[in-house]
Amino acid sequence: MGFGRRGVLAALATGVGVALVPAPPSQPQLGRVQSADGRLQIDGVDAEGTIRDERDSPVARYHYKRTDDGFEPTSPINVVFDLERAPGGLERVMAPLEDSGWVRSLEEYTRYAYDADRDVYVRQQATAAETYYGTSGRRHVRCWQFGSVVSMQAHVDTGARPKHGIESYADARQYLSRLYAGEGWDVSPQTLNLENAQEPDHDGYATVIHEVEA
Amino acid sequence: MSSDTDTTDGPLAGDTSSSTSLERTGEGHRERTADSKLETPLWQHPLVGLVPRRTAVTALILGIFTLLFTVSALGGVVTVDGQSLDTTTGLFDSLSAWVIAIATSLIVAGPFLYAAWNGGPTLAAAIPLVPVALGELVTGRYAFGLDWAIALTTSVAGGVFAVYVLDVREAGSLRPWDVSTDAPDRLLALTVFTLVGAIAVGRFVLAAPETLPTASLPFALLWLVPMTLVTRYWIARVRTHERTVGPSSAQS
Question: What ipTM was reported for this prediction?
Answer without folding.
Answer: 0.87
